[in-house]
Amino acid sequence: SHKLALDRDCMTLSRHVLKQFQDFSPEAQDLSALMSRIALAAKLIARRLTRAGLMDDALGFTGQTNVQGEAVKKMDVYANQVFISVFEQSGLVCRLASEEMEKPYHIPENCPIGRYTLLYDPIDGSSNLDVNINVGSIFAIRRQSDPDIDETGQDLLQSGRGQIAAGYVLYGPSTMLIYSIGTGVHAFTLDPTLGEFVLSNENIRVPEHGPIYSVNEGNFWQWDESIRDYIRYVHRHEGYTARYGGALVGDFHRILFQGGVFLYPGTVKKPEGKLRLLYESAPLAFLIEQAGGRASNGTQDILDVVPDQVHARTPLIIGSTEDVALVESFIRERQREQ
Ligand code: P6P
């Protein structure tokens, strides 16, 4: 039967990556192996999340604060360590840069120049953890092109155009892994009975326009007037609906599939906004452009922004081309008046 054939021939992640290449070049093999390691990390984190409420030391805070000054959750530490352990054994990655670590973690024994760096946010949306609402992991892979002289990752201060792969894991009712290596955006769903991520959506295209706007309106009076103008517009016009889950990965995933726009603008106190460039906004910007959408900081494409430090923040407007352009038009309108 068709179902039987599908099971037998299910498209796994590593096979799908190889299929993107015409040849079996060293880079194809590398990327296929890298994505398999991401999948292993995702399965280890998904497993702990599923049982967190039944374990003594899985949820809650560690009592530490991270380089961001944010209270660290036990799951943040666990997930960060999972990525290090999984890639330490991979022989592919020589450095990991994470939201949870001040400086990148170096794996000295396999660190010839030209190897790969993994940039990641191990658990994004950790404020959802203790209430069993979806969280995610975000990742990007770059080739290490220059020596990291003082091991602070200064060579990573480049635009997002240098990413060779990017994606995220959504730990939701099902665990999904979405990735791109520059040949479109593809989604895989974890089949727990197989322990494999199986292709569920190939060549995802974000609609040119969508009904959803996703933003934390609690910050309304902290934004620039131009953003308030945009919100007044969508409040007044038919056909818009608000959806905000408090976790970037889930909010982005909804926009990728249904269209619309997610915004985390700067505020008067934090003009750079809250979201990080290198391991949150740039990977998602890579994906949205591959899916036919756009990502902007309000005046510039996210993928063209060059950070001044590894943990640089950026305002983020991301989603359907028409909706991102509409937000930018309100920003330009106000700039003309100044
Ligand atoms: P706020 C989660 O803490 C996070 O980093 C993103 O996942 C999310 O989009 C954002 O912060 C939510 O921030 O200020 O709306 O609670």
Protein structure class: alpha+beta
Secondary structure tally, helices:
8
Oligomer: single chain
The gross shape turns out to be: globular
Radius of gyration based on Cα positions:
20 Å
Instruction: Provide the β-strand percentage band.
Output: 15-25%
Distance between the termini: 66 Å
Question: What letter string, H or E per element, gives the SSE order?
Answer: HHHEEHEEEEEEEEEHEHEHEEH
Bound molecules: 6-O-phosphono-alpha-D-fructofuranose
Q: Compute the average pLDDT.
A: 93
Task: Provide a descriptive summary of the structure in words.
- The longest helix is centred in the first third of the chain and has 26 residues.
- The termini are far apart.
- This protein is globular.
- Helix 2 packs antiparallel against helix 3 and helix 5 crosses helix 8.
- The mean pLDDT is 93.
- The strands form three sheets. The protein has an eight-stranded mixed β-sheet, sandwiched between helices.
- A hairpin with a 5-residue loop joins strand 8 and strand 9.
- With 338 residues, it is an alpha+beta fold.
- Bound molecules: 6-O-phosphono-alpha-D-fructofuranose (P6P).
- Its main location: cytoplasm.
- It catalyses: beta-D-fructose 1,6-bisphosphate + H2O = beta-D-fructose 6-phosphate + phosphate.
- Keywords: Calvin cycle, Carbohydrate metabolism, Cytoplasm, Hydrolase, Magnesium, Metal-binding.
- Its cofactor is Mg(2+).
- Its EC number is 3.1.3.11.
Outline the secondary-structure elements:
Elements: H1 2-8, H2 13-20, H3 26-51, E1 61-65, E2 71-73, H4 74-88, E3 93-98, E4 105-106, E5 116-124, E6 135-143, E7 163-171, E8 175-180, E9 186-191, E10 196-201, E11 212-214, H5 225-236, E12 241-242, H6 248-258, E13 260-264, H7 277-290, E14 294-296, E15 316-319, H8 321-337
Parallel strand pairs: 3-5, 11-12, 11-13
Antiparallel strand pairs: 1-2, 3-4, 5-6, 6-7, 7-8, 8-9, 9-10, 13-15, 14-15
Residues 124-125, 127, 216, 246-248, 264, 274 line the site of 6-O-phosphono-alpha-D-fructofuranose.
GO molecular function: fructose 1,6-bisphosphate 1-phosphatase activity; magnesium ion binding
Binding site for Mg(2+) 2: 121, 124, 280
Catalytic activity: beta-D-fructose 1,6-bisphosphate + H2O = beta-D-fructose 6-phosphate + phosphate
